[in-house]
Structure formats: C-alpha cells, structure tokens
Amino acid sequence: MTPPDAPPPHSPTHAPNAASPERVPSPGAGPDAGPTRGGERRARAVLHAAGVDAIVARLQATPSVSGCFTAWHTEPARPARTRRVGPVDGADGHASDGTLGLRPELLELLRRRGMDELFEHQARAIELALAGKDVLVATPTASGKTLAYTLPVLQSLLESDGAARSLWMFPTKALSQDQSKALNGWIEALGTDWHSFTYDGDTPPSVRRTLRDRGHVVLSNPWMLHQGILPNHGKWSELFRDLRYVVIDEVHTLSGVFGSSVANVLRRLVRIARHYGSDPRFLLSSATVRDPAAHAARLLGREVEVVTEDASPHGKRVFGVFDPPIVNPVAGLRANALEEVRRLAPFVTGPRHQTIFFCNRRIAVEVLTTYLKEAAPSLGLAPAEIRGYRGGYLPLLRREIEEGLKSGAVKVVVSTNALELGIDIGALDVAVLVGYPGNQASFWQRAGRVGRRGRTSLTVLVARSDPIDQYLAHHPDYLFGAPRERLEVDPDNLVLLSEQLKCAAFELPFSSIRSDADDDAEAGQVRGFGDSPHIAGILDYLAEESNLLVRRPGEHGPTWYWAADAYPAQDVSLAGNEPDNVVVFDEDQRAIGEMDRESSLTSVYEGAIYQVESEIFKIERFDYENRRAYAKRTASDYFTEAETDTEVRVLRLEEKAASLDPTGAERWAVWRGEVHVTTVATLYKKIRFYTRENVGAEDIHLPAEELDTESFVLTVSEASAAELGLTAGNRAAAWRGIGRLLRRVAPLFLRCQSSDLGISTEVRSGHFSSPAIHLYDRVPGSVGLGGALFREHRSIVRAALDVLERCACPHGCPACIGPVEEVGVHGKETGTRVLAWLTASAALDEVDPTVVEAAEAEPR
Amino acid sequence: MSEPADPSSLANKLRRLRREEPASNPDVSAAELPAWVQRSLGRRSSASERTARADDAARRTLGAPRDVETYEHERGRFGARVTRYASDHAHGTWRLNEALDASMGDIVLLSRDDALGAIELERAVFLDVETTGLSGGAGTTSFLVALGRFDGDAFELWQGFLFGPENEAAMLAEVARRVSASSAVVSFFGKSFDRHRLEDKMRLHGVEPPFDALPHLDLYHPFVRLYRDCFGDGRLQTMERHLCGFLRPDDLPGQFAPEAWFDFLGDRAHRLEDVFQHNADDVLSLAVLAGHLGRTCVERRASGAPLGGPERERAASLARLLREAGRDVEALEWIERALERSGDEPAREERFLHADILRRTGATDRAVERLTELAHGARDDVALRSAVELAKHAEHRGRNAALALTATRRALDLVTIVATGARRRRLAQELEHRRARLERKLAARE
Fold it and tell me: Which residue from A minimizes the CA distance to B266?
C-alpha cells in the first residue's frame, strides 16, 4: 500500500506522494501531470495499456487455472470527492466563507504539491481535529490518512509559534522512520526550525537529550513509550508540558493482550501529561474495521469522533479467489498453495508490470523468491528484478528494495507482512496472497498495495487447506462485505491492569479521593486510570503483598508511592503478560524458542520433539521450576503429540441464551462465564512423519496448569443429544471435532488466532449434565474473547457448517472437522448433522437472569 | 464493574491470576519461590542473606535517624542533619582544608574541562546522594542528599533527608536553592548519576534544576585517567584508600541504602545510621580527593610532604594528558620521569609514548631509533603501532623509502597477528597501499 499519508497516485488534484518533498511535480509538467516518475510510468502505460485487464482475461480463459477460481469480484473505478480549503479566518479552523480554513503557509504548500483540494474525509477529520476533538480516521489503505493528522499538527505548530508539541506512535520502527522522513519534508518546506525525530532503540544516547528538549514532534512506538519515555518523564518534561496532540497510527493493530496493554500505556501517558498541565487530543488512524468508534472508545476510555467514509478515488479493482485442486480425494488434501503460486507466476508476473506476493511465513518468502529467480527467464524477467523482503533484512537492503519498487526497477517482490503496513513503495499492479493473512484488516492492507489511478489492479487470494481459507474460497461475500471481526480490548483485565499499575505507580504516586458516599472508607476511589473499581485494591495488594509500594496518609485519603529498587516497565511486556514464559535452550545455551507456560506442557515435556524452522530438536530436560527447557539437535523420523486432560470448572455464569422447543423445553444453549481451567498433560505419542503411524507412547510427568479466565460454553440438552446421537463412543470424537472446528473458524469473527482460545469438550459435562463445548480465553483473567464468542456464536456455527458442507472429503480431513483418525468414520456426518441442527433452530432468546442464577446455584 | 470491590476476594483473585503464592513471611518464602515470582513480587533474592548478617541486628535502630531537624518548607516538611567539622579535620591521612590548596590549572588539565579553571573550591558544594536504586526513572527517589561546603574555619555537611516520598518536592527545592548559592559542584561520578537523579525529579516537581549554570568537577574521570591501570577499578573507596589513606572498616555498602530507607518507611528497624555515615564519608572524601587532584603536577602537598600514590603511572598519565593538550615539552619531561621511575624495565606502552613525544618535539633521530627498537622487540600491538608510525614518518618526513618499506613490511607481518576485526582490515588495506606506493617509488629510482 502507499503510505496512509499519500493520496493515491495520479489523482487529478494530488501529487503522487504528497508527503515526500523530493517528488514535487516537475516544473515543465502540465496541470494534470504526475511527477517525473509518473511521466515515465505513463509512457509505459500507453504502450501496454491492456496490462492487468489482459492478465485477468488470460486467467479466466486458460482452462488449467480458470477452473480453480471460485470467485471473481470487480469494484468499478471511483472518482474522488473533494473539498476546497481556504485560508483560516479566526481561531476556529474555518475560512471566512465557513469552509475548512488552514494557515496560508500550509495552503501554499498544499498548492505547490498539487493539492488545491482535500478529500472529503481528510477535510472532515482535520476540521474535527482543529475543533479540539479526538478523531479516528478509519478508511482503507492509501486513502491519505497521514495527511489528516499531519495538517492539524502543523497548523497548531504554526499557530503556537512552535510551542505545541506532539507525540506520534507507529506499530513498527520501520514505519516511524518512514513517516519521519515525510514529516521532515513538510517542516523543511515550511522553512521553520522545528525538529521532528524518531525516538527508538536506534537513537544514539548522545543525541537523546537534545531531542528530548527540542523535539517538536517525537515519533516512537508503544514499546519505547512504555519502557523508555513514560518511566523517565522527568527527562521529557518539556514535551509533556506542551503536549497538544498524540497521534496513533494503525490502531486496528491494537487488540487482544497487546491492545489492552497499550490502552493502559495510554492511561499512563494521559496521567503524566495532566501532571505537567497538558491535556492532549488524540488523532488516530485505522484500517477499515468493524465498529471503529467502539474500538477507539475502549482504547482511550473516552468517546472519539469517527470518520469512515473514504472519498479518495481508485481505478477498477479485480479480485480473484483461487482454490487449489484436490489432489487426494480420500484425505481431502488440496494442492499446496505455494506450489500453486508457482503455477500462477507466469500469468501474474512480467516485465511490464509490478507484482507483490504475500506469504505468511518468512521461510515461504525465501522458498518462493528462490523459485521465481530460477524461473526468471521464462517469466521474461531478470533475476535481479525479483526480490524478497521480510523482517530480518538489514535496513539498507530494505531501503534499496523499497526504492526499486518505487522507481519500477523491481518488478516482483515476495514479502511477509513486513510490507503490509504503511512503508512507502508506491502502488503496484498485482497482489497475490499466499493464504489468508488471518484477519480482514491485513487482507485489505495487502490488497491495498495495488492500484494505480486510472488503471485496473488485481488481487488474487490463494486458499490453503485450512478451514478458514476454505470458508473464504466459497464465501467471497465475507471478504468484500462490511468488516465482521470484533476487535476485543479489555484494559481492565486484572492481570494486565495490575502489571500496568505497577508501571504507573513508578511514574507518579496514586492518590485516592475519599468521599462521604464511599462505603469503603478504607481506601476510597482512585481516579484517572479508567473505571475499574479495583484500582485501590490492587494498589493495596502491591503495597502489602508485593512490597513494591508504600501507602501514606494523604489529605483526602491514602496515597501510594513506589518504594522498591526496581524498574517495573523492564519486566512488564506489552504482548502477553506472562511473567513466567518458558524459554527453550539448545546445547550451546542459545535461546531457540519461547512459549507461555500452558503451551509448555504440551510442547517441551522431556522426550518431546521440538521443531524450529525445520530443524529438529529433542527436549532432554525440562526445568519446570525455573521455566527452562533444554533441547538437543537430533534426527528423528517421528514427531510427538501430547495428550492433555483439561478440566473446566465453572465458577460463575454471567450470560445465557437458549433455544427452546415449542413446549418451552431447552434444546441447546450458549453461556458466558468465569471458569477455572486445570490442564494436565498425561502422555505423548510418537508419530511417524508422513505415514502418521503411531510408534509408541510415554507418560508425561508435569504438574497441572491452573488458569482463571472467561469461557464461552455451548451445551446441547440431554434429550436433543440423544436424538442427534451424541452420546458415546465415536460420537464423542465427533463432538470434539465440532469444538475444534468452531475454534478454528472463530477468527473470522473476532480478532484473534485459534491458538488464543483454549478448548475443552465433554459429552457429559458434570456442571451442565449434558454435552458441552468450552472455548475459553487463554489470557489469565481474559481479554474479552469469551464475550465476543458469546455474541458471535451464530456466525461461527454457520461458518463451521459451511466449511463442512463445502469440503469435498468423504469422512473428514484437516481442512474441515479433522482427519478420520481423529474424528472417526462418522465424524463428518455427525458434525454436519449437529451443526445443521444448531443452525436451523430458531433464534436464541436471552434467558431471564434468574435462570442463570439457578444454574449458578447448581451443585457441581 | 458495577459491584463494589471486596478487597479480600480481590487480593485472592489477584494472587490466583498473578500466580503468586498466598502471602507469607517474605524472608522465609523468598528462597523457595521461583525466580519469576520474586521478580514479579519485587523481593530481591538476597534479602534474606542481607538480613542474616551477624552484626546486623545490633546496628539497626527504630524511628527517625538521630540529630535530624525538621524543616518546614512551603511544599512540605523534610529533615536535615547538619554536622560541622573543623576545616582541618583529618580524613585518612589528609585534612579537609587541603582542598583549598588545589591548583585549578592541574584540575583543568586532568578534567579536560576549561570551565573549571575559574572555580573556587571555597565556594563549591560537594555533592553525594543516596537513592532507592540505580536504574533511574521517575520511581527512583533520592532520599538522602548531602551537600558539603567550606564555611570559614569549618566544613559544613548538610544531609537532607526524606521522612517519606510525599515530601520530595520540598527537599529538592531546598537542594536546588543551596546548590544555586554555590559557585561549582564537586562529585564523584555525579555528572553521570547524582546530577541526573536530582534533575529528573526536580523537573518532575517543577523545581528549576540549578546544574546547567554551574561548572561541575566530576572527580571520577580525572582519577580514572591518572590511576586506572594500577587499582583495578575506579571506585571512590578505592581512590580514598590508596590516595588518602582513608579506611572504612564498618561501611555499609551503598547498595544496602534502599533497603534501609524502605525499612524506615515500613516502621521496621533500619540501618539508616550507617547510610548517613556512608554518605558523610563519601562527601569528606570528595574534599580530600579534590585536594589530592589539585596537587598532581607538583606531586607535593602544601605542607611539602610527598603526594603519595603510584608515581610512575601518574607520570605516564600526565605525559599522555599533556601530549593530548598539545603541551609537548612538558609531556616529554613527564614521560622521561615515568621511564626513570620504571627502573630497568619500562613498559613498552610508555616507551612508545616516549618515542611519539620525541618525534613531536623534533628529536626525530631518537624517535626513529626508539620506534625501530619497539617495532622489532616483540610481536605485540605496540610493535605494530611503532612499525606503522615509523613507516609514516620515514616516508613523509624522513624521505627514506627503503626504511619506510622495511617498516611497512614489518607492520604487515604484525597486523594479522595482533590486530582484529575492522581495525585489522583497515590497517591491512592502508599498509598494502603504502607498500605498493613505496615499491613503485623505489622501482622508479632504480
């Protein structure tokens, strides 16, 4: 995608890369001309005008591939909707005629960059920002989002004569460096002596002080804010004293544990800003997501104005979904997606256009790049015109590839998600996604990398043998309709909140305000850190049990001060807050892997075969107490699979919805509630590679894992279960298969990975006296996945049924309910019957809370 | 969110969620808990060891430290202990007022800071702080700030003390006032540590930090330059022991200071008396070390007694510093003094420095002679540097291509043995160029 700051290339009113000063229109060009680069591009375009349309035609006309496309989707070209901008008249951000007003210096600069008008959504966002609102712009890639926050920041700098400062945050280091260049272009063009700089791990300590004191705009990332800036706010007092705007780019990446942690980091930021007397506004940008207003409100803890109507223009866009052919009908196995991409390469690559391949794994990038380079002559390309791109490449090499893409020297790039976020590489022509990237925002970010104005672009999704990919292969409507995933953020998760309160208490003391109305006269209320009623309790805990704080009497109630020789942010991670991750070491004491404690039970028990990037290790010793596993390189013709026994004990049920038959008897129900999960690893099986032959089993001796969290539960009444044949024997395997399939398709509707959900299935649950499937949030204390499943269960069940019905295998395969060995010969049939029955039954009714109460009171 | 918090059940829930053991006696459980729990709980692993020291209990006191007066400040109250020492108070084998005999010229040379030339130690503050940790950041509190100064015939030690974290702003305001009233700051490693701890918290509390306006003599750097190689480390206590004869048999090491203050805050028996003593000793050492430093070039105390300390290293270090300052004639005197003091076997580094200074003072024949000896005397880094210098000198100054080529070849032999990494690549490349150039020159002549 082009950077969010840049309006789409070649639009009538915009230079191609508004934020890059080096590419202003050439003096000799006509009013409608692009930059010099565009001139060359246009010449090529004239020669090969039929480019992408011809590719689409060939794909549709060649029998060996056309049959594999399960869907084609075309979005027609769309013109821009723009708004005129005038010089500001007065302080309210409006021109004299009531339209959006900007400072004359900015207007002049926009004009010089060929922007006499702004896109409607940009104008709206800027207007709101200048009116002092918190704003979120949630529009697709390349719609010019950066401009929507750059202009208000520059305007406030101009109006305050350089006094107003801002802090910009990006999800990656590369992105902040890219944006820093663009911003400096603006600042230089304005001829001011303001300083903007990137503050990250690469900033040399020798210049940090100057930057802290003089930086008008500081570009950083959530990790630096969390561990570097906030804990040292005394050093940053100049910034915080005059902090006018906080800009956060790509907020759709802030979900789950990471998003919930960042939401707390923002609470800390606001608390510190207030300490220094400033009250910054937030300017956010996001990809198109479901309910962006709710997401932003949960992140910031306050209501935010949201702009979602994309008014930027685009050319015709064609999308194709490619489902590889079935190569083993019995196993339901489809041809490998990467192999199929090789088959597609001659169609989608060539010397006259630029193609980007997205792979989900680094190793796949290397494999595909190597293959394409070897095949280069037959593709009409030189090997040097084909490049790989991924994290781990050195910055200089990355810059070179980015420049090659912009100049047109690189014709084909194979990338991981490293090119998914806003690095500026210009617009390309064809995108091939090797497998669904796991969520809709990523899909659109990747697809957004292609599309030049006035020309057709093509995006091909190549499906893998995976329930989600298979679902999408047959439901293109999911991809092209409104976003469906819920972004879950729960800043008040007790574990995350308590860890973040540690960091916050280090930064500034917490005071409570005791009012007469408070029942709990002991502690009172602590304000300024969200609405959780537990803050005072957690602070007391940190004082009395953890010895990290001291509680001192204050004017209106107690105050808690940090009193420990420690730097808590160092030990608190933003992504998952398990302090007790298990680290795997090889013979040379090199760390080769890390996982949370619960996963360690099933992956690094003594005797386990542990694989890292296709290297095989055997776990020799697992020091459970100290969270270390020791592995040794080995040759093995088998892998190992652990069996676990998971017991979910229901602590409290909070929500229920049930489907009733005409007599009022319950047929099935869904629940949400607090649970306590105990997982014991029992034994592991050695399974031969390829043949999956079981060649032995051993016991695992590890203590049980305990987890308190929130769960979604699906239960089927005893009578219905009997009718459906869900009682014993093989049917238990089918029930388990249904659970696993629900877990695998759930990420279609909530922003998570399957591995974020724990599962337990019982054909006869002790608690519910009926078959039950528990899908629980694997984050201790939960970040809301249980609730999201509860709200989305109908869509998830429906999608699971679709996957089963569409799958060509006879009895079950890895791409649907699971292989026959796992689910039994009747697995698929039973699964289909149960899911169809669940889908067909009448809409669920919210159940009277008293029923929930009763269920809660049930003896276990 | 709607129900009121029940503290006891919340604590239980937190314990479960955070996977922490139920609360118990921390000293007993600390040893048994896995490391991550201790980290998470913030209990240091050696806590039980520390408290187990035999003499520990006897040294503890309860309540406020002795002789601490309470100051009422508009931003809160804090304590201070003021101790007046006679200005000729003996600290080790030195007297405090010997600081006033320091030559500021010496101090400028050794500190490489011209701003120090104008300071008067009579009007300086000698600064040392005790903090709740070394990590820095907003959560690190300077709970004891010592400012020493000469006051007529006395040396006044003011130790500001925090009764609690809530009064930090008040004490910092007073510290800032006292520091501003002085003309310079003297510390040991304070430019890198103490100053920043105070400055960060002053900015946090809206107190204008006074340090930018004042020259700051940080004794750490000059002492490390002078004596780095002889003492093994550059700590204050190492310097005061070797240079001023001050010993601290009962010292409570600085890393125990945080615990002492936390014990005081928790109304437990604490070792703050020892922390006050440690802090006071540090400040008195600043005064005598400043005196010592200011007598480096004459090598005698004002009384005429010899300065003491490692003479040979001092002479060599002075030579190096003077050479860097472009004072080659003095540098030559000092390096020759260092060579005399080394007896029969002067160190090769010092001999190299000697040759280098000889060359710069125009004694080229002697320089070439020394460099030739060094280049061939061993296969070490000194030999390599000597051969390189010799080659450069012979080619450009001496116009002796043959000698230059011999030296270049010697250097090329040595470079693969003694140099590593990027330096090796760079040197090897330079030397290859030089060899090629010299060979062309010599060939052209024939």
Answer: A550
The secondary element (H helix, E strand) that includes residue A386 is strand A386-389
**Taking Cα atoms as reference points, which of A833, A812, A859 lies closest to residue A721?**
A833
Contact B39/A536, CB-based, under 8 Å?
Answer: no
Residues of B in contact with A492 (CB under 8 A): 1
Among B26, B37, B138, beta carbon nearest to A232: B138
First to last CA, chain A: 55
- Collapsing DSSP to helix, strand or coil, A762 comes out as strand
Q: What are phi and psi of B80, to 5 degrees?
A: -155, 140
Residue corresponding to tokens 């030296």 = B407
Lowest mean pLDDT among A474-483, B210-219, B358-367: A474-483
For residues A438 and A435, what is the distance between their CA atoms, to the nearest angstrom? Answer: 8
Place A412 in a pLDDT band, splitting at 50, 70 and 90. very high
SS3 A594: strand
The answer to whether A231 contacts B15, with C-beta atoms less than 8 Å apart, is: no
Q: What is the DSSP string of A52-76?
A: HHHHHHHHHH-HHHHTTEEEEEEE-
CA dist A134 and A284 (Å) reads 8
CB distance A405 to A426 below 8 Å: yes
3-state secondary structure A660-691: ECCCCCEEEEEEEEEEEEEEEEEEEEEEECCC
Cα A543 to the center of its chain, rounded Å: 35
Q: Who among B11, B134, B200 is closest to A545 (CB)?
A: B11
Residue B201 half-sphere exposure toward CB, CA atoms < 13 A: 29
* Mean pLDDT along residues A91-119: 82
SS3 track for chain B: CCCCCCHHHHHHHHHHHCCCCCCCCHHHHCCCCCHHHHHHHCCCCCHHHHHCCCCHHHHCECCCCCCCEEEEECCEEEEEEEEEEECCCEECCEEHHHHHHCCHHHHHHHHCCHHHHHCCHHHEEEEEEEECCCCCCCCCCEEEEEEEEEECCEEEEEEEECCCHHHHHHHHHHHHHHHHCCCEEEECCCCCCHHHHHHHHHHHCCCCCCHHHCCEEECHHHHHHHHHHHHCCCCHHHHHHHHHCCCCCCCCCHHHHHHHHHHHHCCCCECHHHHHHHHHHHHHHHHHHHHHHCCCCCCECCCCCECCCCHHHHHHHHHHHHHHCCCHHHHHHHHHHHHHHCCCCCCHHHHHHHHHHHHHCCCHHHHHHHHHHHHHHCCCHHHHHHHHHHHHHHHHCCCCHHHHHHHHHHHHHHHHHHCCHHHHHHHHHHHHHHHHHHHHHHHHHC
Give pLDDT, residue B334. Answer: 95
Rounded to whole angstroms, the maximal C-alpha distance in chain B is 101
What is the average pLDDT value for chain B, to the nearest integer?
87
pLDDT above 70 (res B402): yes
Q: How far is A144 from chain B (nearest CA, A)?
A: 38
Q: Give SS3 for A800.
A: helix
CA distance A437 to A415: 12
Residue B33 has pLDDT above 80, yes or no: no
Mean of the pLDDT values across residues B285-304? 95
pTM across the whole model: 0.81
Amino acid letter at A47?
L
**Which strands sit side by side in the sheet containing A135-138, from one edge to the other?**
A196-198, A217-220, A165-169, A243-248, A281-286, A135-138, A305-307
Which of B26, B42, B139 is closest, CB to CB, to A507? B139
What's the DSSP call for residue A262?
H
B40 Cα to chain A: minimum distance (Å): 7
Whether residue B137 and residue A232 make contact (CB cut-off 8 A), yes or no, is yes
